[in-house]
Design a protein that fits this description.
22-stranded antiparallel β-barrel, single chain, mainly beta, 47 strands, 54% strand
């Protein structure tokens, strides 16, 4: 950390020196601004505007406007271009301390440009990702990122978030959790899906995704790999996901569709949008899903509605109001279970075998509301403010975890009853601005966010016995005919209600400093404060209240980031960055007796981003190292030197290291053809143990994360007279070998390894479709080779991947 602080100080002095020199310059620079429109007079967004002589570029905003600041006086040639469109150039003269206006009209009309935009993924390299908050172009973002756009979501007929993120290198769906949630990982770390540690966001706001987010409302899915603590606090060190939803439009349109697939899956949906008045637009999305499964006795029923309104309060201010409601009923499903207390996978049983009770259920009601205010002070300064609330109510009843099953499949089934509520409240304000100090440019972000997460859960008993010790019946998970299974539903009575509130506050600042047109520095810091209140317990039968054993915790952490960016030409960027992440710990420090401080995690990343052949191919690579130098482990001795038998007394002396690299190559060779490819390697392991009690085995790989992942997708649409409207495509995904179960510890009670090795697997999907005017039909066969493999949550939820399946979507756009 000292070295990093020293580097930041040196960079600050360098900026000041350069700034002081430029303040002495006698001739102030000028500015270029204007708009780019289509031939039918509509704004053209994400079009690149370049000053040829300076290799200086920017992209147009949603309203088609652009600004190039800090341009030295002189004669220049402006060029506008977009993948699949015709270039245009214009000669201009920039004068000192003045703004030169230059407007362009593209030959393409709005519908033609929209078709190109979809196919070209909005010129992937230059389009900012909203998850970044600062509006940096991808060339200026010193971090690996990826976007799954609406065309990929449509072409792959994506229904679940886990199916979307596989299109980004190094990101994989690695676990399922009882059939009611997905665990996604990258760079050796998985993400949380609920609570204050969630790493999944919707339109930049914390969201609970326990009920599988609805893909029909997604415009795109953004991924930011590596540390994002500067912007979001204690999120996963591996990645964060931002789901960008479809927004209201001031042009009328919409789509009705019917999706049908194997195992009686059908999913009708409607999406309607348009203006209510000159300054108010709406959008309404509604979806119904009824889905069987290749798993016996498993079903899903979902009802979803997503209304939104967009208000143009004035020429510079908009207000977006969004809400959604999801009602979901599904069968909780642990898959085929495991054998010998999680040591083995019962591969001899069919992938369809179901071991939960015949009546198991999980019902969820989830609703959310969000208001987003955007105000443009001028061309350079923008204010964004968001408030949101989300409620998730889950009622479930099923068998308990199948984690104590004998080697021969014998299992005394217990029961688990849950009635939980999670309420999430968030607010954030972000101010972004561009300015210059002499010839040094700045792109500033200053922001703050607040979060409250309130969890309420119930305890249950059956016939006066705590449900956790109740035995329902006995089955054999290999031979289900060996015993007669119970079918009655015991009455589980509420005994206690536990309330656990968490509050978090963060403040952050970041500046992208352009020392020259080719050399930039991005630096920033965040301070996070979190208060985890002592849980309160209401004993319902005794009519008394109490408190949990853990006391109220106060956690604080600083998260710095510093990066150096070099852009030798307008289409290439090379960067080196350092960032610091943190995770909150439970337990007490052996030395102080106080709550354990957060573990600080250092990330180093070097990468290159390149746009080739006038943007038709984008090639990116990143190499990283992530080190947790102070992993929390159980202390072997207490502060007085006696042997420690309390697993909550810990010290920050362990270490994990994650090394790897990602490669992405994306092509948009024409508006008819695009491809996406990616490969990643990761080696996440324990690198320091010191023989401590409870510490992991030196060199052992961390569970969950695969060593290798790869993805490839291509789609081609014919435009010849004979085949016009036909589309073909293929997608393949590879998930390498990984470890499930739990990492071993020194001196563990059991003699056997707690790890469950899982081999790698690849799947291949083929697609074909046809579009005639406003009607389209798309069909696909997924996992065409019928590959068999497993997704494992810890050591008990062992779910086989879906077999070969058929899926088709009939849609009408208006």
């Amino acid at each position: 950390m000292k070295k990093i602080h020293y580097v930041i100080i040196q960079l600050t002095f360098l900026i000041l020196i350069v700034g002081n020199k430029t303040f002495a310059d006698d001739i102030p620079n000028g500015k270029i601004s204007g708009t780019v429109k289509t031939s039918d007079g509509k704004p053209a967004s994400f079009v690149t505007v370049v000053i040829k002589e300076l290799n200086k570029a920017t992209s147009t905003k949603d309203d088609g406007s652009y600004t190039l600041n800090n341009v030295k006086p002189g004669n220049y040639t402006l060029r506008v271009s977009f993948v699949g469109t015709e270039r245009q150039e214009k000669n201009i003269i920039v004068s000192s301390a003045k703004t030169t206006k230059a407007d362009f009209t593209l030959i393409e009309n709005a519908s033609q440009l929209n078709e190109v935009n979809i196919s070209a993924n909005h010129k992937v390299l230059n389009k900012p990702v909203s998850v970044d908050k600062a509006g940096l172009s991808a060339l200026d973002l010193p971090q690996s990122s990826g976007v799954v756009n609406s065309q990929v979501i449509e072409d792959q007929q994506i229904n679940r978030l886990g199916d979307a993120v596989k299109n980004i290198s190094g990101v994989s769906l690695t676990q399922t959790r009882g059939g009611v949630g997905e665990t996604i990982s990258a760079r050796g770390y998985s993400i949380g899906i609920t609570g204050a540690s969630s790493s999944i966001f919707k339109d930049g706001v914390l969201t609970n995704t326990a009920g599988f987010p609805e893909a029909s409302t997604l415009q795109s899915v953004e991924i930011l790999k590596g540390s994002a603590a500067l912007l979001y606090g204690n999120v996963s060190t591996g990645l964060i996901i931002n789901m960008v939803t479809k927004k209201p439009q001031f042009e009328s349109g919409g789509e009705v569709s019917m999706r049908y697939g194997s195992y009686n899956m059908f999913k009708p949906s409607v999406d309607v949008y348009g203006p209510i008045s000159q300054d108010i637009a709406f959008r309404l999305i509604g979806v119904y899903e009824n889905d069987g499964s290749y798993r016996n006795h498993v079903y899903t029923e979902r009802k979803y509605v997503n209304p939104s309104l967009l208000f143009n309060l004035d020429k510079k201010t908009t207000l977006l109001i969004e809400g959604d409601y999801l009602r979901e009923s599904l069968t909780p499903d642990f898959g085929i279970g495991s054998l010998n207390n999680g040591q083995a996978i019962p591969t001899m049983v069919p992938r369809s075998q179901y071991i939960n009770t015949s009546w198991a259920y999980s019902h969820m009601n989830q609703f959310s509301g969000m208001a987003t205010l955007n105000h443009q002070f001028n061309d350079d300064w923008h204010l964004n403010a968001i408030v949101s609330g989300q409620g998730t109510d889950i009622d479930s009843y099923q068998a308990s975890l199948p984690n104590v099953v004998s080697a021969t499949g014998e299992w005394n089934r217990g029961l688990a009853r849950a009635n939980t509520i999670e309420n999430d409240y968030t607010g954030q304000v972000n101010l972004t601005g561009k300015f210059t100090t002499g010839s040094v440019s700045h792109q500033l972000l200053v922001g703050t966010d607040v979060t409250k997460v309130l969890n309420v859960s119930n305890g249950f008993s059956i016939n006066g016995q705590n449900i956790s010790s109740y035995i329902y019946d006995k089955i054999n998970t290999i031979d289900l005919t060996k015993y007669v299974q119970r079918t009655d539903i015991p009455n589980a009575v509420d005994t206690a209600r536990i309330t656990a509130p968490v509050y978090r506050f963060g403040a952050y600042a970041q500046d992208l400093v352009g020392i020259t047109d080719k050399l930039k520095v991005l630096a920033g810091i965040r301070w996070t404060w979190q208060q985890t209140y002592q849980t309160s317990v209401q004993y319902l039968q005794k009519q008394t209240t109490g408190y949990g054993t853990a006391i109220t915790r106060y956690d604080r952490a600083f998260s710095p980031k510093a990066s150096l960016i070099y852009q030798p030409v307008e289409t290439s960027s090379i960067y080196a960055s350092y960032s610091n992440d943190f995770t909150f710990n439970t337990g007490t420090d052996v030395n102080t007796g106080q709550g354990l401080k957060p573990s600080l995690i250092d990330q180093y990343e070097v990468g290159a981003k390149n746009e080739l052949f006038d943007g038709k191919i984008v090639a990116n690579v990143s190499v990283y190292r992530i080190i947790n130098n102070n992993l929390a482990v159980v202390a072997p001795f207490k502060a007085d030197g006696t042997v420690n038998s309390d697993n909550t007394v810990k010290q920050l002396t362990g270490q994990t290291t994650s090394d790897g690299f990602d490669i992405d190559v994306t092509g948009n060779l024409s508006k008819n053809f695009y491809f996406i490819t990616g490969y990643s390697y990761n080696n996440a392991r324990y690198t320091k143990v010191s023989g401590l009690k409870g510490s992991p085995i030196l060199g052992e790989r961390l569970v969950i994360s695969p060593t290798h992942t790869a993805n490839a997708t291509l789609f081609y649409t014919f435009d010849t007279r004979a085949l016009k409207g036909f589309k073909v495509g293929a997608s393949t995904f590879y998930t390498g070998s990984r470890l499930a179960g739990y990492n071993n510890t020194v001196g563990q009670a059991q003699a056997y390894s707690r790890l469950v090795p899982v081999g790698g697997f690849a799947t291949l999907d083929l697609s074909a479709g046809y579009t005639y005017k406003k009607i389209s039909l798309l069909a696909s066969v997924t996992n065409i080779t019928n590959t068999l493999n497993y997704l494992i949550h810890d050591n008990y939820s062992v779910t086989s991947i879906p077999p070969r399946q058929f899926l088709t979507t009939l849609a009408y756009k208006f």
